[in-house]
Amino acid sequence: MNLRLSAVPLALTGLLSVIFSAPTQAQNLVTLFEAAKGYDAAYKSAQSLYTANLAKAEQAKASVLPTVGLSGATNMTTVDLLTGALAGQSKSYSSLSANLNVVQPLYRPANKATYNQGLKQAELASAQLKASEQDLIVRVSQAYFDVLASRDSLTFVQAQKTAVAEQLAAAKRNFEVGTSTITDTREAQARYDLVLAQEIAAENDLRVKKLALDLLVGSSTTEPRSLVLPVQLQAPQPADINTWVMQSAELHPGIVQARVALDIAKLEIEKAQAGLKPTLDLTAGFSPTRYINGYSATQVDTNAISISLNFNMPLFTGYASENRIKETLALEDKARADVETIERNVAQATRTAYLGLQSGLGQVNALAAAEASSQSALDANQLGYKVGVRINIDVLNSQSQLFQTKRDLAKARYDVLVGQLKLRQANGSLKADDLQAVNALLAK
């Protein structure tokens, strides 16, 4: 295989310039999150659902407010006179009438429960939107750092290709002068071919990750800003896992939704019980009638005003109300069990996220130490190869280990940053403002 070794550093330089240049076009995490809020279909759907639920909650007010109705009619009558002095003549007259009716519930327990359910629906809508926003924060952050991790992986593969190419060139020179065997050349060639395959895979992975981020924010020109190194990753605060769990019981939108659903179920019991209770309404009406071209003295204009109290007491409902009460009591038990289930699941998820974040921080520290050790091992093997106490494959293996450690360390850093957000999502405290702390770690 003919290698243009002089072109390899130039190609790597060109790739790095494409990846890390154009800072004016690069976007930070907050910028892309704001773009996603205006584009992501799932979040926009949640916003529309929130608006619809608020309107639905407002509808419940109608059950305790008066209802007003207006109706009207017009009538034309023609009378043919058959006898008397006017026999053979026709008389016509018209009438106009209207009816204004007002009904104000005075005592309707079911309506009161419906009104209270509407207030709860507003709380439910707010919790649902909060959960959707938290989900969007994590999805954008994950996609953002997936691109950075894939971009770093490609950079490290390109750097490894350059190093392996140099080792291959050295093996060929040594073989030509007789200081090494053909085995060294073939080993270096095999490793170079492997790195080329890894480069193709890394390029494709970067394109895929980039497409995922573009889909979230609605732009084909996303260019995430890189993490500034060295970076100081913070441990979770507070450092007590139980504190995070206790916070979740009050903050997590899933728990809030479950508790609101329980309150609504209790109000549904009140509505069912109201089926056996009396109702009392106040009704008022005003009905004017006007005659045009009156025919007789009995047809005169009138104004009728009525006020009444309407009382209704159900005596027997065919056991419908009694069985409805049984149904709502069972549904209340289900809602209470759902609250316990979500509380346990959230507590478990919070603990898992907390321990995962601690593990990630430990991995970052361990991989940082491993990176330094791998660099020292590579330096030692390169020196040993020059003096003849190490063979080519030792150098190649050291190079491979070093660059793999670098990739793992970069990804571990990104996993920690996303893990910090996922921990807050797990206990329900995640807000858009939390992205500012992560954003401060990115290039300006």
Provide key terms for this protein.
444 residues; alpha+beta; Outer membrane efflux proteins (OEP); 4-stranded antiparallel beta sheet; 10 helices; 4 strands; 65% helix; elongated; disordered N terminus
Element order: H for helix, E for strand: HHHEEHHHHEEHHH
Number of strands: 4
**Form type:** elongated
**What is the CATH architecture term of the largest domain?**
Up-down Bundle
Helical/strand content category: alpha+beta
The fold-level CATH name of the largest domain is Outer membrane efflux proteins (OEP)
> How do the strands line up in the largest sheet?
1-2-3-4
The CATH class of the largest domain, by name, is Mainly Alpha
Query: Low-confidence spans: pLDDT under 50, at least 5 residues?
Result: 1-24
Give the distance, in angstroms, between the N- and C-terminal Cα atoms.
Answer: 43 Å
Description:
By secondary structure, this protein is α+β, with helices and mostly antiparallel strands. Helix content is 65%, strand content 13%. It is built from ten helices and four strands, in the order H-H-H-E-E-H-H-H-H-E-E-H-H-H. The chain has a four-stranded antiparallel β-sheet with strand order 1-2-3-4, with no helix packed on it. The longest helix has 69 residues, at 109-177. The radius of gyration is 39 Å and the shape is elongated. The two termini are 43 Å apart.
